[in-house]
Amino acid sequence: MKKMMITSVGLALMGVSSLASADLGIGVKASTLGAGVELGVSLSDRFVLRGALNKYSKGDNQTIDGIDYTADLDLNSTSLFLDWHPLKGTFHLTAGYLMSSNQLSASATPSQAVVIGDNTYQPSDVGRIDAVVDLGSGPYVGLGWGNLPAKGLGFSVELGVVQMGTPDADLTIDDPNGFIAANNDIEKERANIENDLDQYDTYPVVSLGLSYGF
Fold it and tell me: 119-129: per-residue pLDDT in tens?
């Protein structure tokens, strides 16, 4: 038992020593996921492990299923990537996973007749509409040029795609006269919003970055 404990401690110290001797790098990026910071560590001369944080917010007008909304897009994500440098140079292939709380919040107060679900309603029948859409998390694949832990100042370009899955929408409508709920059109409209935003099922990622390796 004592021998086993000594062996385990020795292996742990070897792991710490190996990590301490690995090349480390930090970087900043601008991408379709927002502004980001990342940390990378070389596992070998061909493999690099990277972790990143990204954030972006923007307010805009958005038409969803034929209704004009005032919308706020908030992108917040963390990611873990493994880069493979097949030629031991800057070119790399990447696989990983992006965990996000990306969300689109939108509200509308129609001033003219709108179609909700399967029926047309007047503004007095609708009141205010509020929608919250979660855009999801998923696996990432891509390719790029750059090596985050490489010594000194570096530059990177990456192209990839995240498979986020079907957006998940939550919809609230004032419905002061109860007509919309009676026709089950709130649930139908919620499904229509998800279908209208299904284009975000696959989200393209383009990024430019600067890094410094130690």
Answer: 999 999 999 99
